[in-house]
Amino acid sequence: MEAAVVIGANYGDEGKGLITDYLAALDNSSVLVVRFNGGAQAGHTGQRPDGLRHVFSHFSSGTFAGAGTYLSSFFIANPVLFKKELEKLQSLHFSPKVTVHPDAIITTPYDMYVNQLFENFQGKNRHGSCGVGISETVERNLHTKFQLTIKDLFNKKKLKEKLLIIRDKWLELRLSQLIPRQLTQDEKKLIFSQEIFEYFLEDIQIFLTYCDVVDYNYLGTWDRIIFEGAQGLLLDQNHKNFPHVTRSNTGLQNVSNIASVTNI
After folding, report:
1. Which site from 46, 119, 182, 245 is most exposed, i.e. has the minimal number of CB atoms within 10 Å?
2. Does residue 243 contact residue 127 with C-beta atoms inside 8 Å?
């Protein structure tokens, strides 16, 4: 097996998508691209010679070259945005194979909502977040009671219970930490919308139907592995610029951890 790692040295926009696409297209061997950090905030642009273009988020930048996508345990999955990107790729006549580790954590609409509300509240002092709930998802999953991972999605009854706890308990706690004011009636209506709750359950089922859930042993069945990083080294969560970074390890740490439990 061959393996390569694509990492950006700066703040992002270094061409990680371009390089991943190039490496995936080098030969006709079976290629799996592993998303080893970050989540739906990634925006890696791929373009074919015929001009077909897509900005990859959940799906790997090797998709146009026929590579499979593996969302690792360090990936932050967002079923809402996954569905949106899947529909876009299918409209371009692509239905790439996607697999996901059972320990990958899940972004809910409530994480996205807190993220966006806090950004607006900050005004000129805003963090500069893209608003898809990455940091909020990581923060919530630090608390056992409020964790939500891929393996929690299969029992519908328990899943609903977990989501209600996140909405009714975690959200109240988190907003009290970040925003020292009462929510407006419109904000409360949005948060407690049953329609949003039900739509999210539907998006989860689409995600589970499309993706196979497999552990790291799966990586050993491929000829070549490409680890596709999101964001650059200067945005690593341990960088001195915290909190103006991303909540993930953008260097080799996650790759090393994955390699240590596989035959790579």
Report:
1. 182
2. yes
Rounded-to-integer distance, Cα 214 and Cα 16, Å: 25
What integer pLDDT is reported at residue 130 of this predicted model? 64
Residue whose token pair is 């691209």 = 33
Distance CA 250, CA 42 (A): 12
Helix axes 194-210, 156-165, angle to 10 degrees: 130
Q: How far apart are CA 17 and CA 6, in angstroms?
A: 9
Amino acid 239: pLDDT = 76
Res 215: pLDDT: 97
List of the chain residues with pLDDT < 70? 121-131, 241-243, 245
H or E element, residue 54: strand 53-56
Alpha helices in the chain (DSSP H): 16-24, 79-91, 109-122, 134-140, 156-165, 171-178, 185-191, 194-210, 253-260
pTM (two decimals): 0.92
Q: Please report where in the chains the tokens 């390890």 appear, as a residue.
A: 249
The rounded distance, in Å, linking the Cα atoms of 141 and 147 is 4
Q: How far apart are CA 26 and CA 23, in angstroms?
A: 5
